[in-house]
Amino acid sequence: MSEYVKVVIGEKTYELPVIVGTEGEKAIDISRLRRDTGYITYDPGYANTGSCKSNITFMNGEKGILRYRGIPIEELAEKSSFREVVYLLINGELPTQRQINRFSVLLNDHSLVHEDMRTFFENYPKRTHPMGILSSMANTLKSFYPYLENQEEEINITVTRLISKVRTMAAMSYKMSRGHQVVYPRPDLSYCANFLNMMFHTPVKPYEIDPDVVKAISVFWILHADHEQNASAAVVRSVGSAKTNLYACISAGISTLWGPLHGGANQAVINTLSDIVNQGTSMKKVIERAKDKKDPFRLPGFGHRVYKTYDPRAKIMKRMCDTLLEKFNITDPLLDAAKELEEIALEDEYFISHNLYPNVDFYSGIALRAIGIPTNMFTVMFAIGRLPGWIAQWRENFYDAESKICRPRQIYMGEQKREYIPIDKREKKGGDLQPLFTEFQTDKYPDISFQE
Ligand code: ACO
């Protein structure tokens, strides 16, 4: 007999069906709740809401498990390549040799960026964050590559273009930010080697491809490739639910990832560690600030909505840092600081009782520094890695017969119906919100003119 849950409202009892996932996870199907009872559920940040059924990624936050299409992340990081993982996530199965060859040809065919797009890159103010550029450029691709007639072909080609061009655009924006000549993709190089070459090759110093660095980038991207319904993937699905084009959905995903609570955490970790190492900020003070509820600061790279134990990706990333630093014979004081900070946090009662462990971002910046990636490109690196996950999530949603436009409900807590009061009769009212404009110190901003 299938399981159900009883909800009692007043005199009436309602039976809600239970959905069981392939790994035994259970969900109460509330899709008819409002229709049958007039009630909705309240769940800020959707922390307990299953927004879809998915076959892509399985996570168990209590046991620290992460699998793409059933394959453990540890095995993929060790044995696979990023290109193969892209194929796996998007198509559901590992590719045969023939399929991966074909995929490589397509990636090469679509690796160039339209030359007219360079004008956009060139005209951004010099200090623009590369995530802002990448998000805008992903959306701009739509203007350069309009719809194809055949839907299947449209999806295939758009997906290939995004996977290949986003990587090219990321390297291009880095080169331009340095005022260097752009390096074009080379068909003889693998996906990851190509990226490194586009980033670091210069006419005066040819880039020497190092297989260990190529492997490190590949593992970095594999670890970031998908994470089920994370904030950016949920946004990609949400934008896609309005049948918006894939480029715009990816652009929205990139914007979401930019935030310091999500992918931007890798840059925030380095800033915190730099404060400790370079400014002499004490670790104790950092930990105390993170615990202080009145202080908005949280320890970046720690904590996770799903993981209540060590993030399996962080374990691999930490090992990768050690290997890379050893290989290049680098001593990075930030790595030492990170290890010490981790140790202090993991022994702290607050962190223990809140189940706060390092997440993937805690060590990823140190690995990227060792490879020579500049700090403001860290979140871009995350975005390139997460791209196949976003695409897989978007595609699954696109073909899902149960998918609906994402449109949550709310519980309105504002004023009840009231009259409009003319301006000369209004009295200043106190409220929860600090008024935005009235307290504005206009004399601080002499270049802004205010309208009477
Ligand atoms: N430092 C200090 N306290 C923390 C931290 C942290 N890094 N993370 C969570 N907490 C505390 C919260 O204050 C809260 O305490 P309370 O219950 O006493 O009020 C409790 O732990 C639970 O935290 P929530 O905010 O409810 O957890 P949520 O799932 O909403 O947030 C998040 C998860 C955003 C990742 C959070 O842990 C955080 O801000 N971490 C730092 C930023 C970060 O590393 N982000 C990267 C996440 S992984 C990724 O996107 C790749």
Description:
49% of the residues lie in helices and 6% in strands. The chain is mainly alpha-helical and 452 residues long. Among the domains are: 47 residues, Rubrerythrin, domain 2, CATH 2.20.28; 167 residues, Citrate Synthase, domain 1 (Orthogonal Bundle), CATH 1.10.580. The strands form 2 sheets. The protein has a 3-stranded antiparallel β-sheet with strand order 1-2-3. Strand 1 and strand 2 form a beta hairpin. Bound molecules: acetyl coenzyme *A (ACO). Acetyl coenzyme *A (ACO) binds next to helix 17.
The level-1 CATH class of the domain at 68-223 and 246-256 = Mainly Alpha
Bound ligands: acetyl coenzyme *A
Mean pLDDT across residues: 93
Query: Secondary-structure element order, as H and E?
Result: EEEHEEEHHHHHHHHHHHHHHHHH
With strands numbered from the N-terminus, the spatial order across the biggest sheet is: 1-2-3
- CATH topology grouping of the domain at 68-223 and 246-256: Citrate Synthase, domain 1
Number of beta strands: 6
Offer a quick outline of the entry.
The protein is mainly alpha-helical and 452 residues long. The protein has helices spanning 33-37, 73-79, 82-91, 97-109, 118-123, 130-144, 151-177, 191-200, 211-224, 231-240, 246-258, 265-278, 283-291, 312-327, 333-347, 349-353, 360-371, 378-399, and strands at residues 4-9, 12-20, 26-28, 57-60, 65-68, 71-72.
